[in-house]
Amino acid sequence: MVSWVLQNSRMVNVMVTIGDRIRHYRRRLNLTQKELAQKVGVSTGTIGMYETNKREPDLQMLRRLAEVLEVTVGELVAGAEGGESHAAGKVAFHHTDRRHDPSAPIRDSLRERIRKIQEELYRIADELGDVDP
Amino acid sequence: MQDLLSICERDNVLVFWRHLDPDGKLLGMYFRSPGGRPIIVLDESLTHRTRLARCVLAEELAHYWTAPTADHLNHDDPLNKQAIWKDESRAGRLAANLLIPTTHLAAAVKRGLFSAHELADEFNVEEWMIWRKFHILRQDLREQHKLRVSTGDLLSPLLVDVLWGYAV
User: Fold this and answer.
1) Sequence-ordered strand ranges (E) for B8-134
2) Are the C-beta atoms of residues B96 and B132 closer than 8 Å to each other?
3) Whole-model pTM?
4) What is the rounded average pLDDT of the residues B28-45?
């Protein structure tokens, strides 16, 4: 399958498509395709098509599926565990000059600005508390 | 935009809006706090540019899901540079697939939407995201089906059924 074939080396299992994951999480909850379809408000056939990768859920449906299947959207689309952590501080960013060369140098002043914003938001995140389990 | 923000909420990602860059070139950031909170920051200018905002937010969300392996501010080390490329490639691919599902794109092309401009309208994204999606499709067709096709081939009314059969 072209779509949703992931290059994510951090995947914890061999489920490589979103369809595989929908089926896996549905079965984990002992739901039939019909039951899942009723809960998310689509036809049984649509769930079948999602699971066989003949059709992909849109963003709203992904959100609904994640809710019913009791997983994060990240777990559905990328196999990412919601609570999975990587080192704090590593920053990725979207800069228009880097769209075609993601490792192009940026100005020192901008680098400092990014660090300052990080520090400010660390404080706010701290006040809000740690991530929910 | 609400659809993506709602996904952030579901996945426990904090989203902030800040004035990021006087030049207007830094549009979004993703990182984790020391307490483990995933944080996305979007430039305030995006509040009036929905398409661009969706593209940037999808990319930052994809960074969260794929987890950066390097600090993208550190581009002096060649190994880090390589890691940044890989991180961006994974996140860019995931964002494009999230915003433009292949089966939906195939349906749009079959309905007669043949230009990047029309497709960008249809999916409410920037044109560069459409071009990125076509690049990914061509890459996948080449790697998985040994098919070398151009973007023009993917949009050709004559080839659309054959090629999209492989693609979806």
Assistant:
1) 14-18, 26-32, 38-43
2) yes
3) 0.84
4) 91
Q: Distances from the Cα of A29 to the Cαs of A4, A57, B50, in angstroms?
A: 23, 20, 37
Strand (E) or helix (H) holding B81: helix B78-99
| Residue/partner pairs of A103-108 with CB below 8 Å, 24 or more apart | A103/B72, A103/B75, A103/B80, A103/B81, A103/B84, A103/B85, A104/B75, A105/B75, A106/B73, A106/B75
Task: Report CA A88 to chain centroid distance, whole Å.
Answer: 18
Out of B20, B84, B97, closest to residue A3 by CB: B97
Which of B 9-48 lie inside 8 A of A, CB atoms?
Answer: 10-12, 14, 16, 18, 20-21, 25-39, 41
CA dihedral B150, B133, A62, B167 (to 10 degrees): 10
- pLDDT tens-digit series, residues A33-92: 999 999 999 999 999 999 998 888 999 899 999 999 999 998 998 887 544 556 667 888
Distance CA B94, CA A31 (A): 28
Separation CA B121–CA B41 (nearest Å): 25
